[in-house]
Design goal:
There is one protein chain. The chain is built from six helices and six strands. The protein has 210 residues and is of the alpha/beta class. The protein has a single domain, classed as P-loop containing nucleotide triphosphate hydrolases (Rossmann fold). A hairpin with a 2-residue loop joins strand 2 and strand 3. The longest helix is centred in the last third of the chain and has 22 residues. The chain is globular. The chain starts with 6 loop residues before the first strand and ends in a 24-residue tail after the last helix.
């Protein structure tokens, strides 16, 4: 008897300051297109990406949350039921990197998985095609920052040149699925809390292995 085809639906947030390229990243990932003339997102926008993943169908519902929301009360509504997130900054604008910590703290304070753990979050150092990187030139320092801040990985990205967009998304999906399995395990009482499953894929170079 043939097994039924399994489908997964995941809500993923894309957050960060105004103008860091959130909408461009989503357009590149979903539609494989780029335009330098996007208008600022008002409130929240949506996009759907369908993936074939290990014989299963994964549907990513990407929530493009306006940068001007700035940690307001509405973000709690927008964050609800999300299982993963990208936080984006612009490598040419130092202030957008300095805001990353506030975005991450806001996310963690308003959203947790059913087992109480933080959702998987990947940091995107966007617009790396500009060649003027104020923050992400020191990979070791960035990795330490991400580990200290609770990110599962980070990538230099460019929506314009299509750099590391798919790789960053694959990294996030791997961690979401691992976390989902972990939530299922945590339903069964255990003296030792289960640890996040390691992700074993060398192609996901910016994705921490646990």
């Amino acid at each position: 008897m043939q097994k039924s085809h399994k489908e997964r639906l995941y809500k993923v947030l894309v957050i960060g300051d105004l103008g860091v390229g959130k909408t461009s990243i989503i357009k590149r990932y979903v539609q494989q297109s780029f335009s330098g003339n996007y208008r600022a997102t008002i409130g929240v926008d949506f996009a759907l990406k369908v993936l074939s993943w290990g014989g299963e169908t994964v549907r990513l519902q990407l929530w493009d949350i306006a940068g001007q929301e700035r940690f307001g009360n509405m973000t709690r509504v927008y964050y609800r039921e999300a299982v993963g997130a990208f936080i984006v900054f612009d490598v040419t604008r130092r202030a957008t990197f300095e805001a990353v910590t506030k975005w991450k703290e806001d996310l963690d304070s308003k959203l947790t998985l059913s087992n109480g753990r933080r959702v998987s979050t990947v940091l995107l150092a966007n617009k790396c095609d500009h060649g003027c990187e104020l923050q992400s030139h020191d990979a070791a320092r960035m990795e330490q920052f991400c580990r200290d801040s609770g990110f599962v990985g980070w990538f230099r990205t460019s929506a314009k040149d299509n750099i590391n967009i798919n790789e960053a998304a694959n990294c996030l999906v791997k961690h979401i699925i691992a976390s989902e399995k972990d939530v299922v395990k945590s339903v069964v009482p255990d003296i030792i809390s289960p640890k996040l499953s390691a992700v074993k894929d060398s192609a996901c170079s910016g994705c921490f292995k646990g």
